[in-house]
Write a structure and sequence with these properties.
Layout: E1 22-25, E2 48-50, E3 57-61, E4 64-67, E5 69-71, E6 76-80, E7 85-88, E8 102-104, E9 119-122, E10 148-151, E11 159-160, E12 167-170, E13 172-175, E14 178-180, H1 183-190, H2 195-198, E15 199-200, E16 204-207, H3 226-232, E17 257-264, H4 270-282, E18 290-303, E19 307-321, H5 330-350, E20 352-360, H6 371-400
Parallel strand pairs: 1-10, 2-5, 2-8, 3-6, 4-7, 10-13, 11-15, 12-16
Antiparallel strand pairs: 1-9, 13-14, 17-19, 17-20, 18-19
Helix pairs in contact: 4-5
């Protein structure tokens, strides 16, 4: 259920801010959720309920239950809704409940914060957003540094927040219908009795109350934990038919289709540009099967393709389509071409200084497979070898002259 007492959205006070993204945690540890029990059903009157004694757990109970017996954990809590509770079974016949089985509560320890499949984007009004032409690269499917996180009201949960970072920053968190959008309020909640039962692991969640105020967008910030995100998705990458698939930044799976890297100026507005592409190009009937991801990312810069130097911010567009066989990625490629043409005509007005497109389309026997990516890799390799030989020749020259020992 939706909360009826949501505080005024923080973004209303930040007119220049990029709209926040709301991400909702989907698993729960509710007593009435059938999948939380090893028998795949909620315990009934003749059953014996068994919680593992050494498993820490928080369980929301939404209604009254009659049970034969119940073994409780040593460290846990029941959160009772109004009218909920437990009573002992008096032995009378209960229709549909004559098994007298031992029903065990499932292990919730494996639910990890950095598993993208356990999060769902929602609208600011907390309605689920499903489908549509826009998607997120895997790193951004998990809450980013400027996102709002929602744990559903009247829902208990347990989540592992192991992280490569000591602190995971978020804009706000809502737990049990209570909203925390200031560091002080969230710190107070963490000191309470429920937080240690809900969150476990070596990471710490920190609420900042701060959204992204850069109109060109903000990088997600989950890069240090991208290995955890990809491990959670292991084996879930789709089979590809293109010969040289692309590897978008922040995405675990290679893709067929097209990517565009944009260099931008201070005039660039990410939301306005995204809306422009969606409304003028992506919404055309011929692109009905194309999906797009667009966001700011940080790309590592290296010297001679080997030595890491720094990172630079750019806008990454990823385009994929539902074409198959030899046509795989061709609709995405066509849209990428239209985007590049639009940039050539209006880039200066849009705040885009440069655009670079990579394409991977067709099947393994198609003649137009990944030509853009391959040509740049070849050129980079030749250039690297040239500078390497030049450097080696310089060292040899100085040595022969006696200038170098």
């Amino acid at each position: 259920p939706n909360s009826s007492h949501r505080v005024t959205l923080v973004s209303l006070f930040l007119p220049a801010a990029v709209t926040a993204v709301y991400k909702q945690w989907m698993p729960n540890t509710n007593f009435e959720t059938a999948s939380n029990w090893d028998k795949g059903r909620v315990p009934c009157a003749s059953d014996v309920v068994h919680f593992e004694k050494n498993k820490v757990i928080s369980v929301f109970v939404g209604s009254p239950h009659v049970l034969t017996d119940m073994y409780l954990p040593l460290n846990g809590e029941f959160v009772l809704a109004s009218g909920a509770g437990f009573a002992a079974f008096d032995g009378s016949w209960d229709p549909g409940c004559d098994s007298g089985a031992t029903v065990r509560f499932a292990d919730a320890e494996h639910h990890a914060w950095f598993d993208p499949t356990l999060w769902q984007p929602v609208s600011p009004h907390r309605e689920l957003e499903l489908g549509g032409p826009l998607f997120s690269v895997d790193e951004e499917r998990v809450p980013c540094s400027y996102d709002d996180v929602i744990f559903q009201p009247e829902t208990s949960f347990r989540v592992n927040i192991d992280s490569s970072r000591q602190v995971i920053h978020l804009r706000s968190i809502s737990v049990m219908g209570q909203d925390f959008s200031s560091p002080e309020a969230w710190a107070g909640y963490l000191e309470g009795p429920s937080a240690p039962l809900q969150f476990h692991g070596n990471g710490t969640l920190q609420v900042t109350g701060t959204g992204c105020t850069d109109k060109s967008g903000c990088a997600c910030g989950n890069s240090p934990d991208v290995h955890r995100i990809c491990a959670a998705l292991a084996g879930q990458c789709p089979a590809l038919t293109c010969q040289n698939p692309l590897q978008p930044l922040g995405h675990c799976c290679e893709v067929c289709g097209a990517t565009i890297d944009l260099d931008f100026t201070p005039d660039f507005d990410l939301e306005k540009y995204r809306d422009r592409v969606v409304q003028t190009l992506l919404s055309q009937p011929k692109y009905s099967g194309v999906r797009m991801a667009i966001s700011k990312v940080h790309k590592a810069q290296t010297f001679m393709g080997i030595i890491p130097q720094s990172s630079t911010a750019l806008i990454q567009i990823v385009l994929i389509d539902d074409e198959v066989g030899a046509k795989t990625g061709t609709a995405a490629e066509q849209l990428a071409g239209d985007i590049m043409e639009d940039i050539a005509q209006h880039g200066e007005t849009l705040g885009i200084s440069n655009g670079k497109m990579d394409v991977a389309t067709g099947s393994t026997w198609s003649g137009q497979v990944g030509s853009h990516a391959m040509s740049r890799i070849t050129a980079g390799t030749v250039l690297g070898l040239f500078f390497g030989l030049l450097l080696l020749g310089g060292i040899l020259f100085l040595y022969r002259k006696g200038k170098l020992r």
